[in-house]
Write a structure and sequence with these properties.
35% of the residues lie in helices and 23% in strands. The protein has nine helices and nine strands.
């Protein structure tokens, strides 16, 4: 009788802001666990999601990206990648093909990946560029940086994800699974729901305000509906006015978009109550 061999691997997602790390993680897991926004540095903490395929367990960790803008750089964020060094079996460097390559960028990529023993290049957004550009960028990046493999995907369109997952299974080591169950996220449901609303604020509110927002979530389960109460905390009264908007239009838009995504996670009709408050010093 052939003994089943179980495999388990920790896979880190690194890359520049807006490369598509969070979109890739959400679509691999078919489960929204990481904030997605066009603004830089929206992921505050590392977020892990787990998927089990056959006898293999893949543990994906989405971290804050390589930060080029010092305004958003903090010690805790810069430590997040370093904290993973010893635990990581494989690092996936996600590169946005719509971005140009220069010497500074190549240097920053090299600095990041040298911390890990195995690095793969994931060229993302193949649906937005020509085949010539895909091949050209693959050639440039692989000639300058030591990647073991290169994958070409569209995280948003889910193109190339199955091929990517099958190859990751080949790469990870044989060992016991770290988590039991079908899917596990290392964050509470309250945290994930708070992040959904924070994402909508990022997408609907300009300037630096979304970076300052803190959200507290309470969930109340009833027979036919789930009631979600969220308090959005800001630093100033002027910031309250911006999030609420003229005649409450902005907060209404935030709430409508947030509720749709929350219902997808909770799989039940949701009543969402949003309150904007000034933080107490």
């Amino acid at each position: 009788m052939k003994i089943k061999k179980y495999k388990c691997g920790v896979i880190l997602l690194t890359g520049f802001p807006n490369a598509g790390k969070s979109t890739l993680l959400n679509n691999i897991l078919n489960n929204k666990i990481s904030i997605v926004s066009h603004k830089v540095q929206t992921t505050k903490e590392k977020i892990s999601g787990v998927i089990n395929l056959n006898h293999s367990q893949l543990i994906f960790t989405d971290t804050p990206g390589i930060i080029q803008n010092k305004k958003y750089k903090t010690k805790s964020l810069s430590r997040s990648i370093q904290d993973e060094e010893e635990k990581v079996d494989l690092n996936l460097f996600i590169y946005d093909l719509s971005q140009k390559i220069d010497k500074k960028l190549l240097s920053e990529i090299n600095t990041t990946i040298q911390n890990f023993k195995t690095n793969c290049l994931v060229l993302n957004k193949i649906d937005l560029v020509s085949k010539d550009r895909i091949l050209k960028y693959s050639e440039i990046l692989n000639s300058q940086i030591n990647f073991s493999k290169t994958f070409m995907i569209s995280a948003k369109k889910r193109k190339g994800l199955k091929f990517l997952l099958n190859n990751l299974i080949d790469e990870i080591p044989e060992r016991h699974w770290k988590y039991k169950g079908k899917i596990k996220v290392n964050k509470s449901i309250n945290y994930r729901i708070s992040e959904i609303t924070r994402e909508k604020i990022f997408n609907l509110v300009n300037k630096e305000i979304p970076y300052l927002v803190k959200i507290q979530t309470k969930i109340k389960h009833e027979e036919k509906i789930i009631k979600v109460y969220q308090e959005i905390y800001v630093n100033k009264d002027s910031q309250k006015s911006i999030i609420i908007g003229k005649n409450g239009e902005k907060i209404k838009m935030i709430g409508t978009r947030s509720r749709i995504d929350i219902e997808k996670i909770l799989k039940k009709k949701v009543f969402l109550d949003l309150t904007v408050k000034k933080m107490r010093i």
